[in-house]
Design brief:
- It contains 9 helices and 13 strands.
- By secondary structure, the chain is α/β, with parallel strands linked by helices.
- A 5-stranded parallel β-sheet has the order 11-10-12-1-13, sandwiched between helices. A 4-stranded parallel β-sheet has the order 3-2-4-5. Strands 7-6-8-9 form a 4-stranded parallel β-sheet, sandwiched between helices.
- α7 packs parallel to α8.
- The radius of gyration is 21 Å and the shape is flat.
- Bound molecules: iron/sulfur cluster (SF4).
Length: about 290
Amino acid sequence: MEIYIAKGAGFCFGVKRAVDMAFRTAERSVKRVATLGPIIHNPQVVEKLCQAGVKPLEGVSEDVDILIVRTHGITAELYESLREAKLELIDATCPFVKKAQRYAKLLRDEGYQVLILGDKDHPEVRGILSYAGENAVVVRDAEDVPSLNSRVGIVVQTTQPVEALKRLLDRVIQTVKEVKVYNTICNSTALRLKETEAMTKRVDIMLVVGGRNSANTKQLVTLCNDCGVRTYHVETADDLVAEWFDGVKKVGITAGASTPDWIISDIVKKIKAVGDVAFSSKGRES
Ligand code: SF4
């Protein structure tokens, strides 16, 4: 059996930066440190941070001295109120998410009605929306588009597929006189999806590693299923079932942006223990 690991599997730039910031803060400080919500959608990483003394909080608390804002970012109002609070604020918002927030504000200031492509319930989108002005709208796809003003500015949740943006543009240019678009889709997500799709064509089964509540991990699972390959979503090596590998010659592994390398390594070790495995180096299939 051969194992192939997608080159871009695991932590993306923004998640690695945020997790490093949280662990560094825990190391350097004797003060009470917390993250505003789980730092990433991975329970194993959140647990490790708890052990290091950094707990996730659901809201602002007076029992905390240092508060870390996670990669998804927060609303403009919350950011301002935290800056005024008596605590040290560490902003681990991914710079790409910050960019989407800045573009939303820029479009608003230039008088455009801001249209955000994304999931309105996702914290990243709630944050972007807070910079976009009162008449901003969020749409999940092209079918959702309401009647719009004559000047529309578009920004996109960083994890959206580029095809969704193309469909939205197709729709909007039919009715709107002026459209300005900032493509704020993060390359890391697009690359991961592309690599994963290519990998599904070469393997017998796919393992998608990541938190059960991680949106980008679920997106990978859906993609693999749509490609017709037998696919399993696992959080850790404990989820693996030996029978999955019966008669399997090639296993593909991909992972969401919030999956740490050590979980992927554990999974590889456990698969190797199942049988005769020729391990192919990371990225060979991409
Ligand atoms: S997926 Fe992209 S936008 Fe999201 S945290 Fe990672 S690098 Fe940032």
